[in-house]
Amino acid sequence: MLDSTFFALSDPTRRAILARLAQGEATVMELAEPFEMSQPAVSRHLKVLEGAGLISRRAEGTRRHCRLQHQGLNAMEQWLAMMREALSRNYDRLDGVLASMQRPSRTPDKKGRQR
Amino acid sequence: MSRMKLTIEGDRHVVVTRHFAAPPESVYRAHTEAAFIQRWMLGPEGWSMPVCICDARPGGSFRYEWNNGKGGGFHITGEFIELEPFRRIVHVERMHMPDPTPDNHIVTTLAPDAGGTLLTMRMTLPSAEVRAAMLATGIEHGMEASFVRLEKSIL
Questions:
Q1: Positions of chain B with pLDDT under 70
Q2: What is the domain extent for residue A55?
Q3: Nearest neighbour of B20 by CB, restricted to A77, A84, A95
Q4: Does any CB of chain B come closer than 8 Å to the CB of residue A29?
Q5: Which of A22, A104, B45, B111 has the CB geometry, 3.0–4.6 Å to B136, for a possible disulfide?
């Protein structure tokens, strides 16, 4: 399951399709529009995304509607992993900023040293 | 590895704790003064914060804009609700992707801890829809590095 997810996310067109679907359901035609790509080509990308459990498709008359499949993309673990990654990088950098604040500043004032 | 801890509290909150080897005053200033914020609140590698406006007083607002130098970007706006110097910051914020996400209410507390500071940040877990949108935005804007690392940590 994870393998197919990462394969699905490895392509910029598929990522753009997901970003578009995050804003709401869309038809295949609407999804094809921003890309200079035929509908069958877009459909191939959609098949990969569907296979990875990231989107679902349903037919309504002659139209096919696509939507994000929340269990796939939205798995709490993935969101938390992204959050954890961004925060721990931030805090590692903050360590450096704090260390530079501890050193006497180049323009000393009475707050320059605290400990 | 990182001394950061991230836990889920109930089904609505995320609590993050992290120790810093600096006094609460420094940690507080690093969270409330634009010149410092701009140096560390950057997220994944390759991102910068070209716009950082931070009016740290109760009712004051802030705006942080990020971009990855490849045409990807987003911003967060928010307002400060309470500020207790060197101890506590309460604020709300929302991401614009470009539509704003629902407000996230965040309480940051700083406590003296083993010669340094223990930071505790308690925030509201975004809804399933917002998480999906954030993920997709992150993916679209080149945060897939996180996913690659996640994959490695799982395999």
A1: 1-2, 128-129, 131-155
A2: 2-72
A3: A95
A4: no
A5: A22
**Model pTM?**
0.66
Is some CB atom of chain A closer than 8 A to the CB atom of B137?
Answer: yes
Q: Are residues A65 and A88 in the same domain?
A: no
By CA distance, what is B140's nearest residue in A? A15
| Closest among B48, B44, B20 to B117, alpha carbons compared | B20
Min Cα distance A95 → chain B (Å) is 7
ipTM of the complex: 0.85
Which helix (H) or strand (E) element contains residue B64? strand B61-67
Phi-psi region of A74 (alpha: psi -120 to 50; beta: other; left: phi over 0): alpha
| A10 touches B at CB < 8 Å | yes
Q: What is the pLDDT of residues A2-61, one digit of tens each?
A: 556 667 776 778 878 887 887 788 998 888 888 788 888 899 999 998 988 888 998 888
Its sign, for the CA torsion A59, B99, A37, A49, is negative
pLDDT given for residue B60 in this prediction: 98
Query: Domain B5-154 maps to which CATH number in 3.30.530.20, 1.10.10.1450, 3.40.47.10, 3.30.1360.70?
Result: 3.30.530.20
Of B74, B137, B97, the C-alpha closest to A15 is: B137
| CA atoms A84, A86, A87, A93: torsion sign | positive
Q: What's the pLDDT at B128?
A: 65
